[in-house]
Each structure stands twice: as C-alpha cells, then as structure tokens.
Amino acid sequence: MKLVERDRKHLWHPYTQEKTAPLPIPIVGAKGVWLETEDGRKLLDGVSSWWVNTHGHSHPYINKALQQQAESLEHVIFAGFTHEPAVRLSEMLAEILPDGLDRVFYSDNGSTAVEVALKMAYQYWRNKGQERRTFVALERGYHGDTVGAMSASDESAFTKPFKDLLFTVLRADAPHALECERCEQVCDTSCASSLESLLEKHATDTAAVIVEPMLQGAGGMIVWQSGYLKKVRELCDRYGVLLIADEVLTGFGRTGRMFACEHAAISPDIMCLSKALTAGYMPLGVTAATERVFEAFYDDDRLKTFFHGHSYCANPLACAVAIANLELFELENTLDRIGAINRKFHEYGQTLSQFESVRDVRIIGGVLAFELAAADGGYLADIGRDFYLEFLRRNIVLRPLGSVMLFMPPYSIKDSEIEWVFESISDVLLVFERFGVARVDES
Ligand SMILES: Cc1ncc(COP(=O)(O)O)c(C=O)c1O
Predict the structure, then answer these.
(1) Is the beta carbon of 142 within 6 A of some atom in ligand 1?
(2) For the packed helices 316-331 and 60-72, what is the interaxial angle rounded to 10 degrees?
(3) Which residues are catalytic?
(4) Which range is least confidently modeled, 23-37, 185-199, 309-323?
(5) Nearest-CA neighbor of 337 among 254, 224, 222?
(6) How confident is the model at residue 277 (pLDDT cuts 50, 70, 90)?
(7) E strands along 146-233, which residues?
C-alpha cells in the first residue's frame, strides 16, 4: 500500500479539513531548502517547515550534534536532575537574550512556552500577595493553540469553536503596517493610546501584557514600527505590569535581529521561545524570565513553587541541537546572511507593490509577506488556497495565511533560489491579473 493510502487509514492532520483537503504529499527526505517527495519531485521549502528551520534541512553540523548526544544521554526527568545540554543552552541563551532574562524554564513547544509565561505572570503576583486576574493582549495576536494561549490570541477561525472555554483577555489595538507607514506619530497616538487607556483602568488587576514584538505572525504578518514596542514597554513600566514578549516566531533571526525586542532596545520581563530555537529539528520551548520574576517563587513556602512541568522538559537531544543551532549562527554569520536576504526582499518588494492585485507588501528580516487585494474571507479565503496549490505545482511551498502569501525560507537559501521564487511569484500574479485565477489550464 502506498504511503498516502496508509496515511488516510489512521492519521488526522493539523489545521486540515480531512474531507476536502488535497491528499498530503509524502516527503521522503530533505536537504538544504529542498524537500524530496516520494515521486521524485523537489519542493523549495518557502515557509521553513512552519517557520522553524534556520540553517537548512539535514545540516551536517546539527546532525552530528544530535547523533553524539543520542549516544550519551537521550532523556532524563528534569525535576531533581540536570544535564550538560540543558545547562549549556541556558548559559548561551542568557548571554544573547535581552538584558536581565537570566532564568530559563524549559517546556516543549511554542504554545507551552506561552502557557508557562501566562501562569508564571499570574502566580508571580499571587506569590507577592496580589490577586491579578487580567491579561492584556493585542488585536490580531496569535499565541498558540492550548487553552491559555488561545485565550490570549485574538478571535479567529482557530478559536471560534472554543469561545466559551476561554478566559477573558482585554484587547488593545495593534498597529497595522499600512497605518504605521502613513502615520509618523502612531506610537504616541491611536495605537498605543488604546493600550494606555486599558492599563489606566485595569492596571492593578492586570498580571501582564502579552505581545508578539515587531511581527504579528499568524494574525496576518503585521509588521510594526519599533516605536510602538518601546511604548508598550514604557506603559508596562508606568503602570507596573509585567511584559511578556512572545518571540516564538520572531526569535533567532526571523526579524533580522537575534530577537525582535532588540529593534526597540527593550527587555521584557518574560520571553517565550520555540520554533527556530532548535533549527527546525526538535520540539523545545523556553520561557525566559528575569531574576525579579524568579525571586517571587524562591521561598521556603512550598506553595510558592511554580508547579508546572512536562515529561520532555529540557530534552537533551533538543537542547543539543539548539546549542548547535546557536553555534552555527556564529560560524556561518547567519545574521549577516539574513541582512542580505532582507535587501533582496526589499528590492523585489518594489516590483511586487506595482502589481494591482497586491494590496500591501510587508517585509522584515527574512520574512516577505504580501496581501492579495481581491480577497475576502479571512483565514479561509479561497484565493490563498488557489495560490498555494499553484505554487506547489511550480515546486514551491508558500503556505498562506488567508489572503496573505508569505515567503520565509531557511536562512541558508541561495540568491539564485530566491530569484527563482520571485520569478514564479511574478508569473502567478501576472496570470491572476489577466485571467482572475492563479492558474489557467493549458489543455
Ligand atoms: C507567536 C507565536 N506564539 C506561539 C505559537 C505556538 O507555537 P506552537 O505551534 O509551537 O505551539 C506560534 C505558532 O505559530 C506563534 O507564531
């Protein structure tokens, strides 16, 4: 029986309407930016395998680190025990994270990194003798699929079925890239004023503000001005609430800096990391906190313990690949490479914005997003799906967010590969503008 037939018998895929979705494509291997299909095609991984890959698939340096670690210690319970990869990674992170984030709590994916952050902020205040039940998050925010992370996320097709299950979160306006470009004062006026008035009213009941700094990802790849992020930090300080930076997507170079908070030279009180942390190899989550947060839990009273953990906390294999990932950033000057990719994106962005069918182009670091003008229907917009299928036919994986197409390749992508993707994007847009569809059947 073929792989896809076996898949149909038992599997249930994420974010997939199994009745109507096209059959999944069997992948038998991957190298660099290329995924190899069972029937011998090579597909360019234009979304870094759900925004996780950094240095390309099957990188020999990371493979070796993983293999070596597997030979010495594959896993051990992390309560009551410790090990070299967990300690080494925490040291490396403390070195490169924004100032003050010196405590590392491990979990196993982006959503759990966020759950940990929310619970940590909530219990921080309890341990200090204050009941603070409120969180403030932003419009268009997305923080993951577990119940707390969904509560912090803005309402969408993802959260709709679970609406009654979620806790209430106050929601402030987020800056929109289009508006930001037009409004130089934006950070002091419309956008930040909504957060300010929420904090003015609710500060003493608010545990934390949670944001995706500089780039709101799943909400539509919304790029901020750094001034807004500065303002968020200022307001949290002024009103005495914690700031959680969810850098699950933005961490490890995706916005051009190692961490997006660096664009505004701010440090949050708590930061969530996952995705590119392990170069796209293994699930691992990190919630980093300041000593001030840690100290609220450090006590003779056992009830002040942070009672949270997962079976695979600090998995040594995952920590070992994360270490190799960070070493490669140094060895291969990855941040410089992301800068070069960004320049190519900006050059092509000029061409892209000339297309009538493109409503907006948004670029930051190694992320290029463009929103199609003729689209409606949010995340479920048909046009995004049609474009996705057409790019797949052309051997490029560009999974959209509704009508927002995005290109976020592994940093190891070559210039010639980027140019080839740009040519394909222009071709598809030309067809779309002429015929109103992503593809004209040649038969
Ligand atoms: C900003 C942000 N936070 C959290 C998550 C959830 O991460 P995971 O899919 O690993 O649970 C995502 C996933 O896209 C994300 O973009």
Answers:
(1) yes
(2) 150
(3) 15, 142, 246, 275
(4) 185-199
(5) 254
(6) very high
(7) 170-172, 206-211, 215-216, 222-223
Average pLDDT over all residues of the chain = 94
Nearest to 273 by CA among 299, 244, 315, 301: 244
Q: For residue 44, what are the β-bridge partners?
A: 34, 396
Nearest protein Cα to ligand 1, atom 9 = 110
Index of the ligand 1 atom closest to the CA of residue 217: 16
**Strand 242-246 and strand 222-223: pairing?**
unpaired
| Percent of the chain scoring above 90 in pLDDT | 87
Cβ of residue 249 lying under 6 Å from some atom of ligand 1? yes
Q: What is the pLDDT of residues 280-303, one digit of tens each?
A: 999 999 999 999 999 999 999 999
Instruction: Using the atom order of ligand 1, give the atom closest to the CA of residue 112.
Output: 11
Q: Is 217 in the pocket of ligand 1 (CB under 6 A)?
A: yes
Distance CA 112, CA 96 (A): 22
User: Which atom, in ligand 1's list, is nearest to the CA of 51?
Assistant: 14
pLDDT of 395 reads 98
Name the residue with the closest Cα to ligand 1, atom 10. 110
| Residue with CA nearest ligand 1 atom 8 | 110
- Domains, the chain, with CATH or none: 3-55+333-435 (3.90.1150.10), 62-330 (3.40.640.10)
Q: Which residue has the tokens 């205040």?
A: 125
- C-beta of 255 in contact with ligand 1 (< 6 A): no
139 φ, ψ (degrees, to nearest 5): -55, 145
Specify the 3-state DSSP secondary structure of 12: coil
CA gap 28, 124 in Å, rounded: 46
The residue nearest atom 3 of ligand 1, judged by CA position, is 143
Give per-residue burial for 51-75: e unless 16+ CB within 10 Å, then b.
bbbbbbbebebbeebbeebeeeeee
90 contact partners, CB below 8 Å, separation of at least 6: 104
